[in-house]
Specification:
This protein has helices spanning about 10-25, 65-70, 90-105, 120-130, 150-160, 160-165, 170-175, 215-220, 240-255, and strands spanning about 40, 45, 50, 75-80, 110-115, 135-145, 190-195, 225-230. The chain is α/β, with parallel strands linked by helices. The protein has one domain: 3-Layer(aba) Sandwich (Rossmann fold), CATH 3.40.50.1820. The strands form 2 sheets. The protein has a 6-stranded parallel sheet with strand order 4-3-5-6-7-8, with helices on both faces. Strands 1-2 form a two-stranded antiparallel ribbon. Strand 5 (about 110-115), helix 4 and strand 6 (about 135-145) form a beta-alpha-beta unit. Helix 1 packs antiparallel against helix 5 (about 150-160) and helix 3 crosses helix 4. The longest helix has 17 residues, at about 90-105.
Length: about 260
């Protein structure tokens, strides 16, 4: 059933209020927290996996997945990025500087893996497309990433330009803005994507197609992926679930889900 909202008939401030509610529901700001742990088992250097949080989150939101990877014998490194008031391109520049520091701590002949949730996946793809350190990234997993853009971000833009000027990350997520990011995947990196299909979150009701309550399944998929999987979780829980973590580990090890 098609859901429509008659913005044109609403007074400006009513539309703006709705937009602010939309932004608040999309956001769940938390205080920065950094977790970096190196595991050494049997004298062997563990493979480094860099975890990137999504819109309006911070490194704490990747703690569950980092713990699973640590237990699986990886060196999980989580980062904090400005993914609320900055465009994806600007956040990716911060990310690139952090990656330089991470790579400096491991041998030159070692590769790393990257895992991003939601907007974090777009940061990873931007990094892979625009920074030379991409040659060190062997595998990347994008979890609930709006690779074709976010319909909800587009709705926010229809409501008020002021919202997008303030919450610049949302502006980057609008479907019409994605091509400008020039997200060309390097041949050296195998990339897999995992979408959620449990659309039980409030904003998911505004979306017509199958979704995880924030991002539509069809937006996570794009041609050129090495593999694609759909799991029965919503946007908030997908990266905390054991099933998702197992898929991440399998992809890092084999390049397939």
């Amino acid at each position: 059933m098609r859901t429509s909202i008659a913005f044109a008939s609403c007074p400006f401030f009513s539309r703006l209020a709705f937009g602010l509610v939309l932004v608040v529901l999309l956001s769940a700001c938390e205080h920065p927290w950094q977790k970096t742990k190196e595991n050494r088992k049997g004298g062997r250097e563990m493979k480094t996996v860099v975890l990137v949080h999504g819109y309006s989150k911070d490194s704490r939101d990747m703690q569950t997945l980092a713990g699973y990877l640590d237990a699986a014998g990886y060196r999980a490194v989580v980062v904090d990025l400005p993914l609320t008031f900055d465009h994806v391109e600007d956040a990716a520049k911060v990310f690139a500087r952090q990656i330089e520091d991470i790579l400096a701590d491991i041998p030159d002949d070692q590769t790393i893996a990257m895992v991003g949730h939601s907007t974090g996946g777009l940061v990873i793809r931007y990094f892979l497309a625009h920074f030379e350190q991409c040659r060190r990234v062997e595998h990347a997993v994008l979890i609930a990433t709006p690779n074709r853009g976010s319909t909800l971000a587009g709705m926010a833009g229809d409501i008020s330009d002021l919202l997008l000027e303030t919450f610049a990350t949302l502006d980057s997520l609008r479907p019409e803005k994605i091509p400008a990011l020039s997200l060309d995947d390097p041949e050296e990196t195998k990339i897999g994507a995992i979408a959620g299909s449990k659309g039980n979150l409030v904003l998911g009701k505004l979306l017509e197609k199958k979704n995880d309550g924030r991002v539509e399944v069809h937006s996570v998929y794009y041609d050129g992926l090495d593999d694609f999987a759909v799991v029965p979780f919503n946007h908030h829980e997908i990266h905390h679930e054991t099933e998702t973590a197992e898929l991440v580990v399998r992809f890092i090890e084999t390049g397939r889900f």
